[in-house]
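ARCHIVE CARD
Drawer: 12
Card no.: 0347
Subject: one protein chain, sequence and derived structure
Cross-reference: see card 0346
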Amino acid sequence: MIRIDDSVVTAQVLQDRLGSERAVELCPRAKLTPSALDLLRERGIEIVRREAGSTGSTGVGSSLAPASGERRDFKGIFCPNIVIFDANGKINYGEMERYVNWLIDAGIHGLYPNGSTGEFVRLSWEERQDVVRLIAEVNNGRVPILAGASEANTRDVLKMAEFYASIDVDAISLVPPYYYKISDESLFEYFAEIAEQSPLDILLYNIPQFTQELPLELMERLLPYERIFGTKDSSRDLPRLINTMHRLRAQRPDYVVLVGCEEILFPSVMMGASGGTIATSGIVPEVIVELYNQAMANNIDRARTLQYRILDLINIMLLGVNFPEGFKTGVAVRGFDVGPARTSASDGEQEYLLKLESQIGCVLSDMGYAVRGARACPVTNLPPIVGR
């Protein structure tokens, strides 16, 4: 028997170390990637898991459930990371590194690359990997990483999850398959198959604006799969979010529910949401983190004030411009060179973005931030909420 202490065991690791051995001993926290499982099944190799105070043998497939104490805490504000490009339209690694460090220093609880705000569908397969690799290296384990793995088919989802597992990503986010709508039964089989084979935990992502909705009945059927530990809901539907927590936590009290809509962040947290994946946290991380902290501390007046004060900002960044260019313009106002867009824009839209930059500067100045540049801001007489 050979002993392997790696936290992630891939097929390549096994090929390099197994030799003629017929059994492999793994530590309890080790994750086996799908390719490693395939290799073990093909060779009929036994897995032995070391437990505290004892040693036990398991079947090849039993490593798919997360080990006790393995899962990191998915609470608080996760920032859906934008992708910054250079003048040639390629990923600007230096500016991305500066941006990620700034977010973490500002108190963000987690990072979320390759989500909708990260415009993953506009990136190549290699670029999606590069973005997450960069963020994982810069993060260096400081906060949890939830990475989008919504590829076009089951095979590629698992292939991306395997890559993520090899670079210390904590979990994957997964939407229903997009473009082709499938039946609820097929949707159940899709998530079940991935849950059985994924080396990483899975957060289901409900975003009916871009793909078919995840019915609550289907999510309940998926509860026995321990790899599926929670959901992110971007439906903008507070009653649905509350019903999600009510129904799923009746069976899984620790089920994570993150809200993806900043307009309802405060009421969602007050009703028990675990936190949120909030795009505005990429522009005003200090405010969004404080809003969450104040809500958790039951400081109702302060949390309510912050919730109302972010509404103008989210509305001007979200409406009237190609998504997510409004949010990237907000990041630019905070002092980062976000580079050109990855999508085409008319002359009128480009002109609008210049006006949007001024409007964002006005809102941030109103909040108390020091913002440079010409602005024609209305007088609001509102007290600042930062720099107090």
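Annotation on reverse: Confidence is low (pLDDT under 50) at residues 52-69. The chain has 14 helices and 14 strands.
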